[in-house]
Amino acid sequence: MPEGAVSAEYILETSHLVKEFKGFVAVxxxxxxxxxxxxxxxxxxxxxxxTTCFNLLTKFLEPTSGVIRFKGVDITGEKPxxxxxxxxxxxxxxxxxxxxxxxLENVRLALQRRLGTSFHFWRSSKSLAVLDGRALELLAEVGxxxxxxxxxxxxxxxRKRALEIATTLALEPELMLxxxxxxxxxxxxxxxxxxxxKKVSANRTVLMVEHNMSVVAGISDTITVxxxxxxxxxxxxxxxxxxxxxxxxxxxxxxx
Length: 256
Known about the structure:
By secondary structure, the chain is of the alpha/beta class. It has ten helices and ten strands. The radius of gyration is 19 Å and the shape is globular.
């Protein structure tokens, strides 16, 4: 393939991505290829540059240098809203739902955002009821339909994360960016959310930052390991987990 050519099998590609903060290189020459329809995990020790990478991909940060392409189009100069409209939607590390709205209302609000009516506060609740059918479908997809009328603040933590995935799905992403989806969860919730990510990835691509290695091992097609802002290794879990450089990076931080 010629230099600079883009393969249709990759939905997201970065070339030589760099982010510096006053002389500190947080992301160092990262070239990433995320294959269409896969679950791709970004892992690494604390401070490896994973969240900075996510912030560059969603344009919450501007890269110092390098190129980001989505479906073959250079999106390096685009704003976060443009990125979202293209179908790149990020679910945040801290649960980003409205605690004093019902579960159904949270999903309905996300559907309104996609329709461009999120600021139509004067619309009657009856006029928004047309969105309820789709909202209930999304809740069923993540196992939350029985909780539709419950205030979100009353949901257990793991189910709040499931709701967040439902609101992300409401925006019809082609590429879902999940930032630590199982952080802070008990064992039962971790298993539920892991299975949920696998389920919702059926028709879309998932790129996730995740610390829990059992989750990464269980559902990831490809894993990229970052250390000190650079790519240390890449491949399936069985291959990456045996890589001496990866083992050293993780053991080194354990003994630091």
